[in-house]
Every structure is written in structure tokens, then in C-alpha cells.
Amino acid sequence: MRITTSMTQRNVLSDLNALSDKLSRTQTRAATGKQITRPSDDPYGTARAMGLRSALSANGAYKDNIDDAQDWQNSTESALDSITKYVHRANDLVLEGSSDTSTPDSRQALAAEIDQIIQGVKETANATYGDLHLFSGTATGAAPYLQGADDTYQGNLGGLDPATPGVLREIGPGVTMSINTVGSEILGNGSAGGGDGKLLDTLRNISAHLQANDGTSLRSTDLQNLSSNLNQVLSVRARNGAQTNRLEAASTRLDQIQASVTEQLSNTEDADIAQTMIDFNSQSASYQAALRAGANIVQASLMDFLK
């Protein structure tokens, strides 16, 4: 077979182009730090990286939901803590008013403070997270209680009634959690003398007994009822705390998953910089050697051999 000069030149250029393309890809890996810069570099790795990125995105959304739920729970806990302090103060006032040494005038003054506590409790129950009311069930656009004498609950039982889901947050794949507290569960639903035995009903009765100078009722029923109401508030706070702990555990688990997935993604698409630099130097040397060899071959002519 006759090897012509044009064939030699084509072969030299083909080899140089192949080396140049390989060197260019290595240089891109070194510059970007990525093993995969286009799907054709590694189709399987590209598909795996896309799946890992999708998992990271989904976990990020769950993490945002958990953070939002934790903020909601913290706001709820703050409101419940304020209500607890109101109950403790009311208990002190009942103890003072139930004493035989209390006069009708002093009991009238105590009743006035109890009335202020009632309004303070309702105002606290109207606490919001952003523009959403915390204690209205799923009717988060409406305040659960009105100021004044009307103690009727304005929300719904979403989250308390099993048939009505509450304010939900998705904290994992197929895992949803109700994060709200229903105000009527602890404050009740009705006006004075409503008889539901919840906190507002008890406070209204205490005020009425103080105004009526009825120390016996304060001692015999009101203290016991107020103690039951306090236990109810503490029970709701304990449940809220348990939900907060669950959210913290879910957040920690997601952080661990995110770290693991991020490591897998790095192993899939990130370049080994040390190995890349070794490859780059080796390929650069090969390319320079090929250039010199090609130049010597292409420049040779018949006159060179006749000399």
C-alpha cells in the first residue's frame, strides 16, 4: 500500500484533533470541578445525578415545611404560656377572694381584675402566625374570640374533630402532621354561665361569685374548676411540646439525609481534582510531543532525502 503525503497529513491532524479534544475535556473538568459537564460524558451518571438533585429538592421542600411548622408551634407555645400565667394569676385572686377576711369592696376589685383577665385570655387566644390565627382550627382567617361579653368560639374544630383535618404540613414523603390547637378545647364555647366548664366559663363564674360576695362558691367549686382548667392548658402545652419534638426529630433526620444525598451527588458528578490535574499534565505533554512529531513528519519532503 502506498502511503502518500496527504494520507500522512490527514492521520497526523486526526491524531492531533483527538488529543486536543481529550485535553479540552480535561481542562473543562479542572476549570468547573465537575466530572460530568454534558449528558454524553456519562449517561448513567447524568441520570443518577438528576435523581439525586430531585431528592435534594424534595427534601428541601419538606425542610421548609418543618421550619414553618416549628415557627407555628413556637408561636402557639408562647400564647399558651401567657394563658397559663393568666390562670395562675386568677388562682391567686380566687384564693384572696375566698378568704373570710375579704370584704365586699375588695371582692368587687378582684372581680374587675378577673374581667380584665378574661379579655386578656381571649386576646391571647387571638394570636396569629403571620396573618393566620393559631387557635381557630382551619378557619385561620377569623379570630377565634371577640372582645366583650360574648365568649362564643368563632372558629371550627379542624384538628380536634377526627372527621375534620387540621392545619397540615407535609414533613416527609407521604407524612403529614396537624400542627394547630383549637381554642375551644381549653377556653370553651359560650357566654357567662354556659356551663361547659372550660376556662372562660370558670372565669365568668368566678367574677360573678366575687361580685355577689359569695366566698363559699369560690372555695367549694371555683378553685377546683380553675385547677382542672389549668391541667387542661398544661395538657395542651404538653401535646404541643411533643409535636415540636417530633418536628425537631424530623428536621434532624432530613439534615442527615440531605448530607448523605449531597455526598452521593458529589461522588457522582464532581471531578477528582488531583487526578484531573495529573491527567491534564500527562495529556498536555502528549499533545506537545505529538505536535513536534507531526511537524517533523509533515515538513519532510523528497528534497530532504536527496540531500
Keywords:
single chain; 307 residues; mainly alpha; f41 fragment of flagellin, N-terminal domain; two-stranded antiparallel ribbon; 8 helices; 4 strands; 68% helix
**CATH topology type of the domain at 58-265:** f41 fragment of flagellin, N-terminal domain
- Radius of gyration, in angstroms, nearest whole number: 38 Å
Strand content: under 5%
CATH-assigned homologous superfamily of the domain at 58-265? f41 fragment of flagellin, N-terminal domain
Number of helices: 8
Alpha-carbon distance between the two ends: 26 Å
Which sequence of strands runs across the widest sheet?
Answer: 1-2
The arrangement of helices and strands along the chain is HHHEEEEHHHHH
**What is the CATH C-level name of the domain at 58-265?**
Mainly Alpha
**What is the count of β-strands?**
4
Structural class computed from helices and strand pairing: mainly alpha
What does this structure look like?
The protein has helices at residues 5-32, 43-97, 104-125, 184-187, 199-211, 215-269, 273-299, 302-306, and strands spanning 128-129, 132-133, 168-172, 175-178. The protein is mainly alpha-helical and 307 residues long. It has a domain at 58-265: f41 fragment of flagellin, N-terminal domain (Up-down Bundle). Strands 1-2 form a two-stranded antiparallel ribbon. A two-stranded antiparallel sheet has the order 3-4. Strand 3 (168-172) and strand 4 form a beta hairpin. The two termini are 26 Å apart.
